[in-house]
Amino acid sequence: MGKARSMVKLFFLVIFLQILVPAHTATSKTSTEFIFQGFNGNQSELELEGDSTITPNGLLRLTDRDSDVAGTAFYDKPVRLLDNTNSTVGSFSTSFVFIIIPSSSNNGGFGFTFTLSPTPDRPDAETAQYLGLLNKEDDGDPDNHVFAVEFDTVQGYKDSTDRIGNHIGLNFNSLSSDVQEPVAYFDKEGHKEDFQLTSGEPIQVFIDYDGPTKTLTITVYPTRLGSRPTTPLISQRVPKLQEIVQEEMFVGFTAATGDKSSAHYVMGWSFSTGRVPAATLNLSELPAPPPNRAKKRRFNKEIISLIVSLTTVITIMLVLSFLLLIYKRRLNQEEILEDWELDHPHRFRYKELFNATDGFNDNRIIGSGGFGTVYKGSITTTDDDDQIAVKKITPNSIQGVREFVAEIESLGRLRHKNLVNLQGWCKHGNDLLLIYDYIPNGSLDSLLYSKPRLCGAVLTWNARFQIAKGIASGLLYLHEEWEKIVIHRDVKPSNVLIDDQMNPRLGDFGLARLYERGSLSHTTVVVGTIGYMAPELTRNGNSSSASDVFAFGVLLLEIVSGRKPTDSGSFFLADWVMEMHAGGGGVLRAVDSRLGSGYDEGEARLALAVGLLCCHPKRGSRPAMRMVLRYLNGDEDVPEVEVYSHSSSRYSVPSDLKEPLKGDISSDALLQKN
Ligand SMILES: *[C@@H]1O[C@H](CO)[C@@H](O)[C@H](O)[C@H]1NC(C)=O
Ligand SMILES: *[C@@H]1O[C@H](CO)[C@@H](O)[C@H](O)[C@H]1NC(C)=O
Ligand SMILES: *[C@@H]1O[C@H](CO)[C@@H](O)[C@H](O)[C@H]1NC(C)=O
Hints:
The protein contains 15 helices and 24 strands. The protein is of the alpha+beta class and about 675 residues long. Strands 1, 3, 4, 6, 13, 14, 15 and 17 form an eight-stranded antiparallel beta sheet that branches. Helix 8 (about 460-480) runs antiparallel to helix 11, helix 8 (about 460-480) runs antiparallel to helix 14 and helix 11 (about 545-560) packs antiparallel against helix 13 (about 600-615). The site of one 2-acetamido-2-deoxy-beta-D-glucopyranose has 5 residues, from strand 1. InterPro entries: ConA-like_dom_sf, Kinase-like_dom_sf, L-type_Lectin-RKs, Legume_lectin_dom, Prot_kinase_dom, Protein_kinase_ATP_BS, Ser/Thr_kinase_AS.
């Protein structure tokens, strides 16, 4: 009987135990722990929706790089996060390794989340900034019961500005993050180091929630660091979580792409509820990172096509600039002619002049000043070498050039043994080129003043007298013997060239008019050279044959005396000679002392008298060139020279011109002062 009782006792114990054991298993279900060292063979443990899939080598791929796709992956069993006794959210911990491979280095999107959701999928969730988690309508709805840690790679969620983003956010029922931090980790020294989610390298995440303190900590870092940083990136009290978490929750991932896209992969994942941290992932056991080859190949292709196209472009540009260079060189030589330029017989080809002067080489310069720079050139024709002088001038204004060329054309028809023969002209860009006969002995002023180049001696009297008569003859031709009256306007020694027969040749005739007409038409500027300008010129600027005669007079006195017409002081050559003439000592004291007695007294008296006549302050009292030549040739007696003085007739230079009185002031210098 007692045995039976003990049997009954045992039976009840067994029954009790059998009741107890299921009860025990029921409580053990309240905690969850799992670890996926890769996802090979775990299709059944995961709820995959949308674009999500497990790749053949065991990676969980949430999205590929298609545009506008979403994918979710949740652990298929519900997780109890609420504490049994007091219904507060208990501690949990998770760790995972992910890789994001953007479709192009600067253009990844949109990101992924680690999510606590009441459902193991996210029906109706949208792509792009909704990250496969929510949609436009339910975004922000407290009934969502969704908590997500977002890994966002596109900035600007509602204004849909698609700036590049790189941050981690804490989202409660909404895609607007309550907390947001740029992606970074703290190194051993505590320095914050930024890094990119879309770098394509494996990145490990630790998310730990401590129930009692309601604190969420998140640590994220590239696995290449080797060990977990001790300071988390985010450590935040999240009491809000209490309103989110329901009796049963699902844990997992969501991801989405938009117009920007990335492939989002999870390589391994561990999770645990309770205060024990999630199991440590053994990184060396995780599947190999996703093959980045497709992207790399594309990248390489891009690089290669970039290099190829760059090379092509550079080659084309080199060829083009080479051709341009050749073209420009040709252009430098070939002129583009305006219609009117074609029917002028005296026009030279620029190329011809360019070649004749070695490309206007500096060592071809034989003179400068006056109206420009003069180059010596040689044009090789079939039978002989033609020496030419090319004067290159850049008129201040190109407007007058056409008229000027017309004038040059007519001046080109002037033929006289005492004029420098103007062979022709050429217009090239803004430059005007005048082609003259080359005169070998240089200008009169170099013969008068520099070391004598000829015979090793001063210019002889005979030569001087011949030169004076020659100049007079040339001027007469300009004033009276040609079809039009030509006023030289700039008679002075440097404009008189001496040929190998010691004949003088006047050059630069008529040039001053270009300047008068050109840019200076609005101002009345005297054109000429100080010392040679007639008094009336400084008053009204009107050139006439009489003002040429005045300049000739000064030049004549200069030839005889070997003195410059003015100096820095109040010296004026004509007045100085007049003093000799009027004084008792005799006019011959004015003759160049370097000649000694080597001159003809009669001719010297004659020349000085004619010079003084020509320099008369009143233009009406000066003889015409025809008379001047007759006096010099002895065909006519020189009238008595009346005594005059320029200082008494208020001969003066304009005050603004007083400064450059020193030396030889050309009309250019005057022009540049304006
Ligand atoms: C994943 O699958 C492997 C192989 O089938 C299995 O051993 C492992 O337990 C699974 N992991 C989980 C967390 O279910
Ligand atoms: C709820 O109970 C757990 C242990 O069961 C305890 O750790 C926690 O502090 C309690 N929370 C509250 C708010 O009482
Ligand atoms: C990780 O896995 C490798 C290879 O399977 C093994 O040799 C190593 O001991 C593991 N490390 C840890 C910490 O378990």
